[in-house]
Amino acid sequence: MCYGPGGALFGPGCCFGGLPFMAYSAMRTTVLGFALLLMGPLAARAQAPAKPAAAKLAGIAWSASRPLTWADFQGRPKFGEPEAALTSADLLSGAKCTDFVFSATVTPTFDPSTSWVRDAKSSSPALLRHEQLHFDLTEVYARRLRQKLKTANLDCQKLQPAFSRLTQVVYDQWSDEENRYDIDTNHGLNAAKQAVWEKKVQQQLAELAAFAS
Questions:
Q1: Which residues neighbour 79 within 8 Å (Cβ) at sequence distance 6 or greater?
Q2: Most buried residue, 15, 73, 130, 149, by most Cβ within 10 Å?
Q3: In this predicted structure, what is the pLDDT of residue 82?
């Protein structure tokens, strides 16, 4: 069984142009992490997920062995913006049903074309670690979403809006956690709290290792 756009139902073994038709129901959200340019130490703040600008470069998939570097921040700040850096990450999810079998994909990515750093040479390693943890939190919630989708037992004949409702709950939780992270660490200025969050996120990644990207 196959589903088309909007959850439209097609029959088992349906084909279009001689090829199996596999349509996806996908949602997209973005979390933005900012670093304020201050006279003293650099701080960071997060903005609630919003629809991103069209990407010009391929996204960077999250990987434990491939941390972000300032070279990944290839966008440019808008005129008059006071921030020192901006990180844009996407959490993309899609689902399909083929012959009554449900499957889903969840992909966390970093968007180089809409992420930028004003001055990489003068930006601190602490700021980069703070931004990296925003991306790490994206992976945490990608794993949580995969876990929920695996145990959700969604009905292929009623895939929508059930799939959209389930994913939206996780997206909202992700947004809230990103905001808590910035508030609790004072946007990265509180080194002790930053260390606590780094330990916390690493523990969450370990607990959800079975659902890793």
A1: none
A2: 130
A3: 73
Specify which residues 27 forms β-bridges with.
93
Enter the tokens of residue 176: 């809230």
CA distance 85 to 127: 9
Residues 140, 31: contact at Cβ < 8 Å?
no
Helix axes 125-151, 159-184, angle to 10 degrees: 150
Give the start-to-end residue ranges of the domains of the chain. Answer: 27-90+109-208
Scan for tokens 């409702």, then name that residue.
Answer: 165
For residue 57, what pLDDT is reported?
61
User: In the prediction, which pLDDT does 148 show?
Assistant: 95
Look up the pTM and report it: 0.74
Phi, psi angles (nearest 5°) of residue 92: -105, 135
Q: Which amino acid is at 90?
A: D
Q: Give 63-66 contacts, CB < 8 A, sequence gap 24+.
A: 63/213, 64/205, 64/212
pLDDT in tens, 16-49: 222 222 223 233 333 443 333 322 233 343 444 4
Q: How far apart are CA 43 and CA 187, in angstroms?
A: 5
- E strand or H helix that includes residue 3: strand 2-3
Best CA proximity match to 97, nearest among 208, 21, 41? 21
